[in-house]
Inverse folding.
């Protein structure tokens, strides 16, 4: 019998395909308008498919735990980005086919002369294009993250509503009463999803505030932020999971950032260890105890609890990617886990190694082998240096390496090199688990 997670994943993928295909099924069912021609009908199919994918995009970022559980929310967000490219291609193709085959149907470009619904379609296309471009190239365009998130939410919602107006106004394939009812219900479900994500969910978070209790410095220009629940029981998380953090702001605002929990899962403490890398993270050191906070979580399938029968674990971390690994190691120590652990820690310099002292202490509480790899070692360094490649892994992994579970977290180039190294050593792909270091 296939693994339950595989079955659940297949069911969610099937549901996604059904939601994308549903408008096309309605489009082709019943009486189709006569005299339209193949290319006209084809362009309409492209437009409806693109519109359906645009609607499902809101579901992909709604953070439904059951839907995300088989894949991991980081994978869902990555898929969200690629799906947006496909949806944009479909909508552009919809426009271009009409532009080539029946340009007269587009009418005047001037919004003062064109029907409102044609202008709405053009607005949707332009906004959708800008949403995709600014998402894929946010960093090269130097768009600040919080500003981008606000603009992204507003532009995507406006584009969707404008596209709905365009389809309703044209009404070519939904003029039958039953088709209009089905299309309206389908559209309202996406509008309801937007309302849930932007209004209902933040309103629920308002009743579960948190408070910053401590901000302590760590090595490597990192800071640990400790939170305590205010008027509620807090939350339970599995080691390796993460949550979205909002500091000193309303949960209705989109200024939230994903961070892995670095505290032990069973300790009753909620801590995040954050390295000063961007606009928001550079301000963490200035956060004062008593600051109001909100948490949306926990999320993620990156963790040892999912593999209770594993004979051992290998953690490979780069920089602040050590945070979820520390949560797993601290939890294992608190639980008295006697299985073997290997921790391979990649950093630029010796003074950059976050949790260096505690990692050394954990050697006395766990069956833990620690390998530090430095890109810029001091002159008297006798340990590993350079990259975590197949040769380094071969030197330090145990003989039963193919039976262990591997967890990777760090910058993309490092995890890519490490994955290739593990595969070259015969480690099965199913045993290599990684968390996307940067989802946006």
């Amino acid at each position: 019998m296939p693994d339950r997670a595989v079955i659940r994943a297949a069911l969610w993928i099937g549901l996604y395909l059904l939601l994308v295909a549903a408008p096309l099924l309605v489009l082709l069912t019943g009486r189709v308008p006569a005299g339209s021609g193949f290319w006209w009908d084809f362009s309409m199919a492209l437009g409806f498919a693109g519109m359906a994918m645009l609607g499902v995009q809101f579901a992909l970022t709604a953070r439904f735990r059951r839907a995300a559980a088989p894949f991991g929310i980081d994978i869902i967000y990555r898929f969200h980005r690629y799906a947006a490219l496909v949806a944009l291609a479909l909508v552009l193709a919809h426009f271009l086919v009409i532009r080539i085959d029946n340009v007269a149907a587009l009418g005047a470009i001037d919004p003062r002369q064109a029907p409102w619904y044609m202008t709405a379609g053009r607005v949707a296309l332009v906004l959708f294009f800008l949403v995709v471009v600014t998402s894929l190239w946010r960093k090269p365009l130097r768009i600040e993250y919080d500003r981008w998130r606000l603009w992204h939410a507003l532009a995507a919602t406006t584009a969707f509503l404008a596209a709905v107006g365009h389809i309703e106004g044209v009404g070519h394939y939904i003029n039958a009463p039953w088709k209009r009812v089905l299309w309206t219900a389908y559209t309202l479900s996406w509008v309801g999803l937007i309302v849930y994500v932007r209004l209902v969910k933040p309103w629920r978070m308002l009743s579960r505030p948190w408070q910053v209790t401590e901000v302590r410095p760590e090595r490597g220009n990192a800071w640990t932020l400790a939170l305590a629940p205010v008027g509620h029981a807090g939350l339970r998380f599995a080691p390796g999971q993460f949550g979205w953090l909002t500091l000193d702001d309303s949960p209705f605002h989109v200024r939230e950032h994903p961070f892995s929990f670095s505290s032990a899962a069973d300790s009753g403490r909620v801590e995040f260890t954050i390295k000063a890398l961007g606009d928001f993270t550079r301000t963490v050191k200035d956060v004062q105890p008593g600051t109001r906070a909100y948490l949306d979580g926990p999320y993620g399938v990156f963790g040892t609890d999912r593999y209770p029968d594993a004979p051992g674990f290998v953690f490979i971390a780069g920089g602040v990617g050590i945070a979820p690994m520390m949560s797993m190691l601290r939890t294992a120590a608190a639980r008295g886990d006697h299985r073997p652990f290997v921790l391979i820690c990649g950093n630029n310099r010796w003074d950059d190694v976050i949790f260096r002292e505690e990692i050394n202490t954990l050697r006395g509480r766990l069956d833990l082998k620690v390998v530090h790899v430095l890109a810029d070692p001091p002159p008297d360094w006798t340990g590993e240096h350079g990259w975590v490649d197949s040769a380094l892994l071969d030197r330090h992994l145990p003989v039963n390496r193919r039976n262990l579970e591997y967890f990777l977290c760090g910058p993309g180039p490092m995890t890519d090199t490490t994955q290739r190294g593990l595969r070259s050593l015969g480690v099965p792909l199913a045993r290599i688990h990684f968390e996307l270091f940067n989802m946006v």
User: Anything to note?
Assistant: The chain has a mean pLDDT of 89. The chain has three domains: 4-205, 210-299, 304-435. The longest strand covers residues 210-218.
